[in-house]
Design brief:
about 375 residues; globular; about 25% strand; alpha/beta
Length: about 375
Protein backbone atom coordinates (compact mmCIF):
# COMPACT_ATOMS: atom_id res chain seq x y z
CA UNK A 1 0.00 0.00 0.00
CA UNK A 2 1.24 3.47 -0.91
CA UNK A 3 0.02 6.98 -0.24
CA UNK A 4 1.22 9.22 -3.08
CA UNK A 5 -0.02 12.59 -1.87
CA UNK A 6 -1.58 14.25 1.16
CA UNK A 7 -3.53 17.50 1.37
CA UNK A 8 -4.28 19.23 4.67
CA UNK A 9 -6.53 22.20 5.31
CA UNK A 10 -6.97 23.67 8.79
CA UNK A 11 -5.59 20.52 10.43
CA UNK A 12 -3.82 21.27 13.72
CA UNK A 13 -1.11 23.84 12.98
CA UNK A 14 -1.19 23.25 9.19
CA UNK A 15 -3.40 25.79 7.46
CA UNK A 16 -2.94 24.44 3.94
CA UNK A 17 -0.36 21.89 2.78
CA UNK A 18 0.09 19.65 -0.26
CA UNK A 19 2.76 16.98 0.18
CA UNK A 20 4.11 14.29 -2.14
CA UNK A 21 5.54 11.04 -0.78
CA UNK A 22 8.26 8.57 -1.77
CA UNK A 23 7.55 4.83 -2.08
CA UNK A 24 9.73 3.86 0.87
CA UNK A 25 11.29 6.30 3.38
CA UNK A 26 9.56 9.61 4.12
CA UNK A 27 11.43 11.57 6.76
CA UNK A 28 10.21 14.68 8.55
CA UNK A 29 12.75 16.55 10.68
CA UNK A 30 12.56 19.66 12.81
CA UNK A 31 12.38 20.75 16.45
CA UNK A 32 9.75 19.37 18.78
CA UNK A 33 6.35 21.04 18.59
CA UNK A 34 6.52 22.26 14.98
CA UNK A 35 3.92 19.86 13.53
CA UNK A 36 5.75 16.69 12.42
CA UNK A 37 3.47 14.42 14.40
CA UNK A 38 0.42 16.25 13.08
CA UNK A 39 1.27 15.18 9.53
CA UNK A 40 1.53 11.53 10.55
CA UNK A 41 -1.69 11.88 12.52
CA UNK A 42 -3.43 13.24 9.42
CA UNK A 43 -2.44 10.11 7.49
CA UNK A 44 -3.68 7.90 10.33
CA UNK A 45 -7.00 9.72 10.60
CA UNK A 46 -7.54 9.53 6.85
CA UNK A 47 -6.95 5.77 6.87
CA UNK A 48 -8.36 4.76 10.25
CA UNK A 49 -11.09 7.39 10.86
CA UNK A 50 -9.49 8.65 14.09
CA UNK A 51 -6.44 10.37 15.50
CA UNK A 52 -3.74 8.36 17.26
CA UNK A 53 -2.82 11.45 19.32
CA UNK A 54 -6.17 12.52 20.80
CA UNK A 55 -9.62 11.05 21.37
CA UNK A 56 -11.39 14.36 20.67
CA UNK A 57 -11.92 15.58 17.10
CA UNK A 58 -12.75 19.04 18.43
CA UNK A 59 -9.08 19.84 19.09
CA UNK A 60 -7.98 18.92 15.56
CA UNK A 61 -9.04 22.03 13.57
CA UNK A 62 -6.54 24.85 13.29
CA UNK A 63 -6.80 27.36 16.10
CA UNK A 64 -9.76 29.64 15.56
CA UNK A 65 -11.40 27.30 13.04
CA UNK A 66 -14.20 24.76 13.52
CA UNK A 67 -13.48 22.47 10.56
CA UNK A 68 -10.68 20.64 8.76
CA UNK A 69 -10.30 18.71 5.53
CA UNK A 70 -7.86 15.93 4.61
CA UNK A 71 -7.34 14.18 1.30
CA UNK A 72 -4.94 11.67 -0.17
CA UNK A 73 -4.29 9.48 -3.20
CA UNK A 74 -3.44 5.82 -2.62
CA UNK A 75 -2.43 2.71 -4.51
CA UNK A 76 -2.46 -0.91 -3.37
CA UNK A 77 -1.30 -4.23 -4.76
CA UNK A 78 -4.92 -5.33 -5.19
CA UNK A 79 -6.49 -2.24 -6.74
CA UNK A 80 -5.57 0.75 -8.87
CA UNK A 81 -5.18 4.25 -7.53
CA UNK A 82 -7.99 5.59 -5.40
CA UNK A 83 -8.63 8.66 -3.28
CA UNK A 84 -9.71 9.13 0.32
CA UNK A 85 -11.03 12.36 1.73
CA UNK A 86 -12.57 13.44 5.00
CA UNK A 87 -14.30 16.62 6.02
CA UNK A 88 -14.97 17.49 9.67
CA UNK A 89 -16.97 20.27 11.22
CA UNK A 90 -17.75 20.76 14.90
CA UNK A 91 -21.50 20.76 14.20
CA UNK A 92 -21.71 17.84 11.76
CA UNK A 93 -18.81 15.55 12.68
CA UNK A 94 -16.74 13.62 10.14
CA UNK A 95 -17.71 12.44 6.68
CA UNK A 96 -15.43 10.17 4.63
CA UNK A 97 -15.31 9.79 0.86
CA UNK A 98 -13.77 7.08 -1.33
CA UNK A 99 -13.27 8.31 -4.88
CA UNK A 100 -15.64 11.17 -3.99
CA UNK A 101 -18.44 8.80 -2.90
CA UNK A 102 -19.45 9.11 0.77
CA UNK A 103 -19.08 6.13 3.09
CA UNK A 104 -22.21 5.13 4.95
CA UNK A 105 -20.29 3.83 7.98
CA UNK A 106 -16.87 4.76 9.37
CA UNK A 107 -16.18 1.05 9.94
CA UNK A 108 -16.16 0.57 6.15
CA UNK A 109 -12.89 2.49 6.13
CA UNK A 110 -11.03 0.12 8.51
CA UNK A 111 -8.69 -2.25 6.68
CA UNK A 112 -8.93 -0.44 3.35
CA UNK A 113 -5.48 1.05 4.02
CA UNK A 114 -3.63 -1.03 6.65
CA UNK A 115 -1.61 1.14 9.03
CA UNK A 116 0.85 0.40 11.84
CA UNK A 117 1.81 3.17 14.29
CA UNK A 118 4.94 3.33 16.45
CA UNK A 119 4.96 6.21 18.92
CA UNK A 120 5.95 7.14 22.49
CA UNK A 121 2.49 6.10 23.73
CA UNK A 122 3.43 2.48 22.96
CA UNK A 123 5.07 2.36 26.39
CA UNK A 124 1.54 1.87 27.76
CA UNK A 125 1.46 -1.58 26.15
CA UNK A 126 4.03 -2.89 28.59
CA UNK A 127 3.69 -0.45 31.50
CA UNK A 128 -0.05 -0.10 32.05
CA UNK A 129 -3.16 -2.26 32.48
CA UNK A 130 -4.88 -4.84 30.26
CA UNK A 131 -7.06 -2.29 28.43
CA UNK A 132 -4.02 -1.12 26.42
CA UNK A 133 -3.15 -4.64 25.33
CA UNK A 134 -6.75 -5.54 24.48
CA UNK A 135 -6.93 -2.41 22.34
CA UNK A 136 -3.74 -3.43 20.54
CA UNK A 137 -5.11 -6.92 19.95
CA UNK A 138 -8.46 -5.64 18.67
CA UNK A 139 -6.72 -3.17 16.37
CA UNK A 140 -4.38 -5.88 15.09
CA UNK A 141 -7.25 -8.16 14.06
CA UNK A 142 -9.84 -5.58 12.99
CA UNK A 143 -7.75 -4.28 10.08
CA UNK A 144 -7.59 -7.81 8.65
CA UNK A 145 -11.07 -9.12 9.46
CA UNK A 146 -14.28 -7.20 8.80
CA UNK A 147 -16.19 -10.02 10.52
CA UNK A 148 -14.14 -9.60 13.72
CA UNK A 149 -14.71 -5.85 13.74
CA UNK A 150 -18.47 -6.32 13.32
CA UNK A 151 -18.53 -8.90 16.11
CA UNK A 152 -16.59 -6.54 18.36
CA UNK A 153 -19.06 -3.70 17.77
CA UNK A 154 -22.03 -6.03 18.26
CA UNK A 155 -20.55 -7.36 21.50
CA UNK A 156 -20.13 -3.83 22.84
CA UNK A 157 -23.78 -3.03 22.08
CA UNK A 158 -24.95 -6.20 23.82
CA UNK A 159 -22.80 -5.50 26.86
CA UNK A 160 -24.15 -1.94 27.11
CA UNK A 161 -27.71 -3.30 27.14
CA UNK A 162 -26.77 -5.88 29.76
CA UNK A 163 -25.05 -3.25 31.90
CA UNK A 164 -28.21 -1.12 31.81
CA UNK A 165 -30.15 -4.00 33.33
CA UNK A 166 -27.52 -4.63 36.01
CA UNK A 167 -27.72 -1.00 37.10
CA UNK A 168 -31.51 -0.89 37.53
CA UNK A 169 -32.57 -0.89 41.16
CA UNK A 170 -36.00 -2.25 40.25
CA UNK A 171 -34.46 -5.44 38.86
CA UNK A 172 -33.04 -7.70 41.54
CA UNK A 173 -32.94 -11.45 42.20
CA UNK A 174 -34.88 -13.73 39.88
CA UNK A 175 -36.37 -10.78 37.99
CA UNK A 176 -32.88 -9.66 37.04
CA UNK A 177 -31.78 -13.20 36.20
CA UNK A 178 -34.76 -13.58 33.88
CA UNK A 179 -34.13 -10.19 32.24
CA UNK A 180 -30.46 -11.02 31.65
CA UNK A 181 -31.07 -14.45 30.12
CA UNK A 182 -31.63 -13.41 26.46
CA UNK A 183 -28.70 -11.01 26.62
CA UNK A 184 -26.50 -13.74 28.10
CA UNK A 185 -27.25 -15.95 25.11
CA UNK A 186 -26.34 -13.21 22.65
CA UNK A 187 -23.27 -12.13 24.61
CA UNK A 188 -21.96 -15.69 24.84
CA UNK A 189 -22.55 -16.35 21.14
CA UNK A 190 -20.64 -13.27 19.97
CA UNK A 191 -18.06 -13.48 22.76
CA UNK A 192 -17.18 -17.04 21.77
CA UNK A 193 -16.42 -15.91 18.23
CA UNK A 194 -14.22 -13.05 19.45
CA UNK A 195 -12.23 -15.25 21.85
CA UNK A 196 -11.75 -18.01 19.26
CA UNK A 197 -10.43 -15.50 16.72
CA UNK A 198 -8.08 -13.91 19.24
CA UNK A 199 -6.61 -17.27 20.25
CA UNK A 200 -6.04 -18.33 16.63
CA UNK A 201 -4.44 -15.05 15.56
CA UNK A 202 -2.17 -14.94 18.61
CA UNK A 203 -0.87 -18.46 17.91
CA UNK A 204 0.25 -17.34 14.45
CA UNK A 205 1.48 -13.95 15.66
CA UNK A 206 3.82 -15.37 18.34
CA UNK A 207 6.40 -16.47 15.79
CA UNK A 208 6.52 -13.02 14.19
CA UNK A 209 7.20 -11.40 17.56
CA UNK A 210 9.99 -13.80 18.43
CA UNK A 211 11.63 -13.41 15.02
CA UNK A 212 11.67 -9.62 15.05
CA UNK A 213 12.68 -9.21 18.68
CA UNK A 214 15.70 -11.39 18.00
CA UNK A 215 16.52 -9.53 14.76
CA UNK A 216 16.26 -6.15 16.48
CA UNK A 217 18.08 -6.90 19.75
CA UNK A 218 20.34 -9.90 19.07
CA UNK A 219 19.47 -10.98 22.63
CA UNK A 220 19.01 -14.58 23.72
CA UNK A 221 15.87 -13.65 25.69
CA UNK A 222 12.71 -15.11 24.16
CA UNK A 223 9.65 -12.86 23.96
CA UNK A 224 6.30 -14.54 24.46
CA UNK A 225 2.84 -13.90 25.83
CA UNK A 226 -0.07 -15.61 27.53
CA UNK A 227 -3.65 -15.00 26.46
CA UNK A 228 -5.94 -15.09 29.51
CA UNK A 229 -9.68 -15.24 29.22
CA UNK A 230 -12.45 -16.67 31.46
CA UNK A 231 -11.40 -20.27 30.61
CA UNK A 232 -8.36 -22.04 29.15
CA UNK A 233 -8.60 -21.70 25.35
CA UNK A 234 -6.61 -23.44 22.64
CA UNK A 235 -6.04 -22.07 19.15
CA UNK A 236 -8.51 -23.71 16.82
CA UNK A 237 -11.10 -24.32 19.54
CA UNK A 238 -14.60 -23.90 18.13
CA UNK A 239 -16.50 -20.69 18.89
CA UNK A 240 -19.60 -22.73 19.78
CA UNK A 241 -17.72 -24.64 22.47
CA UNK A 242 -16.37 -21.40 23.97
CA UNK A 243 -19.85 -19.84 23.79
CA UNK A 244 -21.39 -22.76 25.66
CA UNK A 245 -18.79 -22.45 28.42
CA UNK A 246 -19.24 -18.70 28.57
CA UNK A 247 -23.00 -19.10 29.02
CA UNK A 248 -22.38 -21.42 31.98
CA UNK A 249 -19.83 -18.97 33.43
CA UNK A 250 -22.28 -16.07 33.15
CA UNK A 251 -24.90 -18.07 35.02
CA UNK A 252 -22.38 -18.98 37.74
CA UNK A 253 -21.29 -15.35 38.11
CA UNK A 254 -24.82 -14.00 38.52
CA UNK A 255 -24.58 -13.23 42.25
CA UNK A 256 -21.25 -11.39 41.86
CA UNK A 257 -22.49 -9.45 38.86
CA UNK A 258 -25.64 -8.46 40.69
CA UNK A 259 -23.59 -7.26 43.65
CA UNK A 260 -21.02 -5.37 41.59
CA UNK A 261 -23.49 -4.25 38.89
CA UNK A 262 -21.19 -4.99 35.99
CA UNK A 263 -20.45 -7.76 33.50
CA UNK A 264 -17.60 -9.87 34.86
CA UNK A 265 -17.34 -12.59 32.19
CA UNK A 266 -16.33 -12.16 28.57
CA UNK A 267 -13.67 -10.91 26.16
CA UNK A 268 -13.95 -7.35 27.51
CA UNK A 269 -11.99 -8.61 30.53
CA UNK A 270 -9.32 -10.58 28.64
CA UNK A 271 -5.64 -10.02 29.36
CA UNK A 272 -2.51 -10.40 27.27
CA UNK A 273 0.54 -10.85 29.50
CA UNK A 274 3.96 -10.18 27.95
CA UNK A 275 7.11 -12.06 29.01
CA UNK A 276 10.82 -12.17 28.30
CA UNK A 277 11.68 -15.80 28.94
CA UNK A 278 9.66 -16.45 32.12
CA UNK A 279 9.87 -12.89 33.47
CA UNK A 280 6.71 -10.79 33.26
CA UNK A 281 7.70 -7.70 31.33
CA UNK A 282 5.30 -5.20 32.93
CA UNK A 283 6.42 -6.03 36.46
CA UNK A 284 10.12 -6.78 36.08
CA UNK A 285 11.33 -5.63 32.65
CA UNK A 286 13.66 -2.64 32.40
CA UNK A 287 12.60 0.44 30.46
CA UNK A 288 15.02 -0.51 27.70
CA UNK A 289 13.63 -4.04 27.45
CA UNK A 290 10.07 -2.74 27.36
CA UNK A 291 10.91 -0.21 24.63
CA UNK A 292 12.60 -2.83 22.43
CA UNK A 293 9.72 -5.24 23.04
CA UNK A 294 7.13 -2.72 21.84
CA UNK A 295 9.16 -1.89 18.73
CA UNK A 296 9.46 -5.60 17.95
CA UNK A 297 5.71 -5.97 18.58
CA UNK A 298 4.89 -3.32 15.99
CA UNK A 299 7.42 -4.73 13.51
CA UNK A 300 5.78 -8.13 13.95
CA UNK A 301 2.42 -6.47 13.25
CA UNK A 302 3.72 -4.96 9.99
CA UNK A 303 5.17 -8.25 8.74
CA UNK A 304 2.08 -10.19 9.85
CA UNK A 305 -0.17 -7.82 7.89
CA UNK A 306 2.04 -8.21 4.84
CA UNK A 307 1.74 -12.00 4.90
CA UNK A 308 -1.96 -12.09 5.71
CA UNK A 309 -3.15 -9.48 3.21
CA UNK A 310 -0.45 -9.72 0.52
CA UNK A 311 -0.06 -5.96 0.76
CA UNK A 312 2.38 -3.98 2.86
CA UNK A 313 0.93 -1.66 5.50
CA UNK A 314 1.90 1.98 5.83
CA UNK A 315 4.21 2.35 8.84
CA UNK A 316 4.06 5.58 10.85
CA UNK A 317 7.08 5.99 13.16
CA UNK A 318 6.72 9.02 15.42
CA UNK A 319 9.81 9.81 17.49
CA UNK A 320 10.91 6.15 17.56
CA UNK A 321 14.61 6.68 16.84
CA UNK A 322 15.28 9.32 19.49
CA UNK A 323 16.21 6.96 22.34
CA UNK A 324 17.98 4.32 20.25
CA UNK A 325 21.74 4.10 19.85
CA UNK A 326 23.29 4.21 16.38
CA UNK A 327 23.66 0.44 16.12
CA UNK A 328 19.99 -0.14 16.95
CA UNK A 329 18.96 2.52 14.42
CA UNK A 330 21.02 0.82 11.70
CA UNK A 331 19.53 -2.56 12.60
CA UNK A 332 16.00 -1.18 12.59
CA UNK A 333 16.52 0.50 9.22
CA UNK A 334 17.80 -2.79 7.75
CA UNK A 335 14.65 -4.55 8.98
CA UNK A 336 12.48 -1.82 7.48
CA UNK A 337 14.29 -2.11 4.16
CA UNK A 338 13.60 -5.84 4.21
CA UNK A 339 9.92 -5.22 4.91
CA UNK A 340 9.87 -2.94 1.88
CA UNK A 341 6.76 -0.95 2.74
CA UNK A 342 6.18 2.78 2.86
CA UNK A 343 7.54 4.29 6.06
CA UNK A 344 7.10 7.72 7.66
CA UNK A 345 9.69 8.79 10.22
CA UNK A 346 9.78 11.88 12.42
CA UNK A 347 13.02 12.92 14.10
CA UNK A 348 14.24 16.11 15.73
CA UNK A 349 17.66 16.06 14.05
CA UNK A 350 18.13 15.18 10.40
CA UNK A 351 21.92 15.17 10.70
CA UNK A 352 21.81 12.70 13.60
CA UNK A 353 19.53 10.41 11.63
CA UNK A 354 21.69 10.55 8.50
CA UNK A 355 24.86 9.81 10.46
CA UNK A 356 23.26 6.76 12.07
CA UNK A 357 21.90 5.06 8.95
CA UNK A 358 22.10 5.12 5.17
CA UNK A 359 18.77 5.92 3.54
CA UNK A 360 18.44 5.22 -0.18
CA UNK A 361 17.80 8.59 -1.77
CA UNK A 362 15.99 7.25 -4.82
CA UNK A 363 13.32 5.77 -2.52
CA UNK A 364 13.28 8.62 -0.02
CA UNK A 365 11.98 12.12 0.49
CA UNK A 366 13.07 14.46 3.29
CA UNK A 367 10.96 17.30 4.63
CA UNK A 368 12.07 19.95 7.07
CA UNK A 369 9.15 21.09 9.21
CA UNK A 370 9.19 24.48 10.92
CA UNK A 371 5.60 25.11 11.94
CA UNK A 372 3.83 26.88 9.07
CA UNK A 373 6.49 25.81 6.53
CA UNK A 374 7.16 22.28 5.31
CA UNK A 375 10.14 22.33 2.96
CA UNK A 376 11.34 19.52 0.71
CA UNK A 377 15.11 19.21 1.38
CA UNK A 378 15.67 15.85 -0.36
CA UNK A 379 18.40 17.09 -2.71
CA UNK A 380 20.38 18.72 0.06
CA UNK A 381 20.54 15.44 1.99
CA UNK A 382 22.06 13.42 -0.83
Amino acid sequence: MLIHSLNLRNFRNHTEKALEWAPQFNILTGPNGVGKTNILDAIHLLCMSRSFVTTSDRVLPNQGENWFELGGTFESAARSKFSLKTFYSVNEGKTFFVNDSPLDRLTDLIGRVPVVVMCPEDRKLTAEGPLERRSFLDGLISQLSREYLQNLLLYRRIRRQRSTLLLQDALRGEMLRSALEPWNVQMADVGGKIIATRALVLEHFAGYLEQHFKALTQLSLRPNFTYKTFMPVQAGQSPSEISAQMLLALDAAFEKEQERRQSLIGPHRDELVFYLDQIELRKYGSQGQQRLFTIALKLAQAFYYQDQSEDRPILLMDDVFGNLDSEKIRTLVRILEEQGGQIFITHASGSALRSAADFSMKNSVWYEVSGPEVKNITQSTS
